[in-house]
Amino acid sequence: MKQRHICAVITGKDTDTSQIAAMADLFEVRIDLIGKDWQKTAVNLQKPWLACNRRREEGGNWQDSEDLRIKELLKALQAGAAIIDLELATPGLKDIVPAIKTKAECLISWHNFKETPQLDALKDIVSRQIAAGADTCKVVTFANKAEDNWTVLRLIHEFPEKRIVAFAMGEKGLASRILCPLTGGDFTYAAISKGTESAEGQLTVKELYEIYRMVKP
Fold this sequence. Notes:
The structure is a single chain. It is built from eight helices and eight strands. The protein has a single domain (6-215), classed as TIM Barrel, CATH 3.20.20.70. It is an alpha/beta fold. The longest helix has 14 residues, at 66-79.
């Protein structure tokens, strides 16, 4: 299975991706942040892309009903998305995942914006994601101390046969953002440019690319 490294996050409808396209392995199209014209952005991408319409309960900006959120997200299947991000807490998850997997891969995500739970609790979350049909399991926590980086990164080695995206947000979680793909994780997220970050502690595509270029054998 081909490893990816950098997922560039598109948060605005007028975002210019031309300067970083060669540095990114895939894009994330944030439907909830871009707004109703998000498909115009997606159609011009030259790399595989991931569709995300994040719930407000997990840090997103979707303003309408849950039913409409899912309907808008599923439009990405027709628009050519390679991956659809669906939260583990999504109502009706077991019915939506099979619909996604008819045309795309399903990434099932879980976020904690306050802390990093103990490893056993995080392992249970990944097991639930796998049971729900995840092709990729995404677990994102918040780092309150340096040790939280290692806790969340250990998930990658606890599930060696699965695609895992695991890191911690916040200033103290920077190490895990960088190390996720270097320790076997599927990819990490990066901002197109300064000021367009979709989460606290996110580096830019160029910054991550330069780091990985320096450590590549």
